[in-house]
Amino acid sequence: MGKKVRLGIIGLGQQGSAYAKFIANGQVPNMEIGALVDEDPAKREEFVALYPGVLMFADHLSMMDSGSVDAVVTCVPHYLHPEIGMAALSRNLHALVEKPAGVYTKQVKELNAFAAARPELSFAIMFNQRNNPLYKRVKEIIDNGEIGEILRSNWIITTWWRPQGYYDSSAWRATWGGEGGGVLVNQAPHQLDLWQWICGVPKSVFAKVSYGFRRDIAVEDEVSAFADFGNGVTGVFVTATHDMIGTDRFEILGDAGKIVVEGSKAATVTRLSKKEREISASMDMEDVKVLFSGEGNLDQFLSTEVIEFDSVWGEQHAGVLQNFAANILDGTPLLAPGSDGINGVRLANAIHLSSWKGVEVPLDFDEDEYLALLNDRIRAEGKYPERS
């Protein structure tokens, strides 16, 4: 049997417990559980029973200094991801941070710089949707130029319905000081990442955001953002946590085709025989009359393909863990380098900032201004210390 990476799982909530299960079940063949960490004594007792013989710690630093792990994954509240990631890297441990990489760009930049100074260590982020074969194929189609240059993209992702009881379950949830935001930092980071991974990083954004719109919370539960990618290319991102019916529809229009992804399960890819403007230029008014009369048919210019993949629960997360271990063991390229984590955080920050100021905000916004306005909200809550 080949060498395995000993993983320290920090935080045994929903994600941490799932990762332990994937590894224990053999879904990550190049990894084993090195140690588990949780502050809660009851949780530690529960997991000692589930995984007898695995070392258990009450704090992450003791685990990191124990010599029992080669790498860690940070399944902790968002603000802690950079701090714990840097603590691991400083001890020559490889680091996999959960999404989002942090809450505000200044802390994520610090993490990225810290990791860049240690290139011999693997630094990754749990963007498991990049391991979704559907989105991998969509990106491949676009990168290959099969629908031409992107002109517009729209993503409505409102399948995040959360009742009030969800927000009331923990004091830190849906607070500026404890969680750092709402749907943009909790539910939608995967889509913010995929949108930019597939379509590119916007130049600026203008957003209308509602805070506590349909829930008794301080943070955002309704977002409509308009992005400018430059050269006339635009995008729209809509998300919410109060839509019980929910929609997940991602459209990418190119100058030679279109992709429509429904429910993150199936993509309809329509390719044009030529670029749209070439088809337009080839038609005279007689051709247009035929089309308008209903007698014409555009099918001669189109070909359509429907792409679907079976998705086994846990397969995408387990695949990221396996890829992270492979990067450590033999240098296999990372699916999601940790440095990419700043893109989604930057866009979420820009959306917040635009809504707070009521103006269009460039993606290279003033980070100190953002942090000052975030701290205003943390201070008003009166529950948590301000951030620096």
UniProtKB/TrEMBL annotation:
TM ranges: none
MF GO annotations: nucleotide binding
Domain Gfo/Idh/MocA-like oxidoreductase N-terminal stretches: 6-117
Domain GFO/IDH/MocA-like oxidoreductase, first and last residues per copy: 135-259
Keyword Lipid metabolism: no
Keywords: NAD
A matching Pfam family: GFO_IDH_MocA_C3
Protein name: Dehydrogenase
